[in-house]
Structures are given as structure tokens and as C-alpha cells.
Write a structure and sequence with these properties.
- It is built from seven helices and no strands.
- It has 197 residues and is mainly alpha-helical.
- The chain has one domain.
- Helix 2 runs antiparallel to helix 3.
- The model has no long low-confidence stretch (mean pLDDT 91).
Length: 197
């Protein structure tokens, strides 16, 4: 194993551990999830670039920025309990999905024509889907968990195709944690609504 290959494996493994910590903390709505997110994203920036997944590597830059945004949103009032789980209207979902599909088509075309990117359209779909869904997490929108389930399911195929097996396994684990996260946030939303009555 070359030193570059070893470095890539260590970076990916560490990023996986931090990503799991992020998700477990996010399920509990603990603000330190964002610190794990930021560090994991820094490591994944390197991993995805080396794997030829250019949209995914650019996504990591967005994730780093959104990590700071999420931290500020969740810390806005200093009282985490006051920032409650919310939902989007069906119209917001239609707009979000349409935007993701349009951006996927446009950036997939650019990647296919001008780069040697691996799987440009799937890479673009998971990237733009993750951009929207990350915003949803920062705003504590319940449906983020559903979006993540779809995106992560597609991502497993993408990562296996690039031989990123640790990351593919991470995304498989994510699917189980996502179900727990959705149920947890829905219970918190229900409890908050009952309290407000």
C-alpha cells in the first residue's frame, strides 16, 4: 500500500467516524454535531477529490460553510429548546425537487463534456440533493430525514462504484440512523405542538 493510498484510507476512516458522530448528535439535536460535520467535511474534501468525484468534493466546501451556518442557526437564541422542528409545505418540496433536477441536468452535462468526472449525473444528483437537504437540517425541517434517505441510498451505489467501501458502509449505516432520526424529530415535534396548545 503506497503512502498516498494509506493517507486516503486513514482520511476516509476518520471522516466516517466523525460523520457517524455527527448524525448521532443531530438525532439528539445536539449542537456539537456541527463540529463533527465540519471536520468530517474537511477530510472528505480530500477523499472525494482523489476519487474523481468532483461534485462531491465541491459539496464538501459547501458542507464546511453550512456547518458554520447550522451551528449559528441552532445557537441563535442560546436556547436549543426554542428552535423547534418544523415542516415544509408541499409547494416548497416541489420547488426544491425541481431545482435539484434542473441543477443536476445542467451540471451533469458540464461535467460530462468538460471533465473526466466519474458518473457525472449521479454525482450531480446526490450533490445538489445534499445541498438542499443540508439547508433543511440547518432549519430543523423534519422532512430532511426523508430526503437524506433517498440521497444516501443513491450514494451507496456511487461510492461502491469508486471503491470507497468505508464511505459506502457509512451511508448504509446512515439509512438506519435516518429512520431513528426521523422518528425522534417527529416525536419532538409532536411534544412541542402539544406543549404549545
Amino acid at each position: 500500500m503506497s503512502s498516498n493510498s494509506l493517507l486516503l484510507t486513514l482520511a476516509e476512516g476518520t471522516a466516517v467516524i466523525l460523520a457517524v458522530l455527527y448524525l448521532l448528535l443531530a438525532v439528539r439535536q445536539h449542537i456539537l454535531c456541527w463540529l463533527c460535520w465540519i471536520i468530517s467535511s474537511c477530510l472528505y474534501l480530500y477523499v472525494m477529490y482523489e476519487a474523481g468525484l468532483y461534485m462531491e468534493s465541491m459539496l464538501q466546501i459547501f458542507y464546511i460553510i453550512m456547518g458554520f451556518y447550522g451551528w449559528s442557526q441552532w445557537n441563535k437564541s442560546g436556547d436549543q429548546a426554542s428552535f423547534q422542528v418544523n415542516r415544509w409545505s408541499p409547494l416548497n418540496h416541489l420547488i426544491a425537487i425541481a431545482v435539484v433536477l434542473m441543477l443536476t441536468f445542467a451540471s451533469g452535462q458540464v461535467l460530462e463534456l468538460y471533465t473526466e468526472a466519474a458518473m457525472p449525473f449521479i454525482d450531480a444528483l446526490t450533490t445538489w440533493g445534499a445541498v438542499v437537504t443540508t439547508y433543511m437540517v440547518a432549519k430543523k425541517l423534519l422532512e430532511n430525514w426523508i430526503y437524506w434517505f433517498v440521497i444516501d441510498s443513491i450514494s451507496i451505489y456511487l461510492f461502491v462504484s469508486r471503491e470507497l467501501y468505508f464511505t459506502a458502509f457509512l451511508f448504509l449505516v446512515y439509512l438506519f440512523i435516518i429512520v431513528i432520526g426521523y422518528r425522534s424529530w417527529r416525536e419532538m415535534e409532536t411534544a412541542a405542538n402539544e406543549t404549545n396548545l
